[in-house]
Inverse folding.
């Protein structure tokens, strides 16, 4: 239900080449903020999503969201 309630967000972490300090990419990290329980760590919700067959829906959401946010940036 976290997807339908819009409780996920994405944090972007740059990938930097240490030799010349160039940004070579960005990693999209999903985070879940439950309205009652607060921040749920990925180490908890990712295995649950895998067990329940929801990991592909979450992955699709991450890709769509990251791409749409890139269009805005």
């Amino acid at each position: 239900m976290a997807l339908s309630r819009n409780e996920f967000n994405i944090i972007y972490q740059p990938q930097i080449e240490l030799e010349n300090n160039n940004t070579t990419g960005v990693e999209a990290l999903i985070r879940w903020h439950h309205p009652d329980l607060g921040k749920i760590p990925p180490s908890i919700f990712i295995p649950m999503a895998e067990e329940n067959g929801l990991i592909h829906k979450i992955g699709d959401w991450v890709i769509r969201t990251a791409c749409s946010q890139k269009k805005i940036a």
Remarks:
- The two ends are 28 Å apart (CA to CA).
- The chain has a mean pLDDT of 93.
- The beta strands are 8-17, 22-34, 38-40.
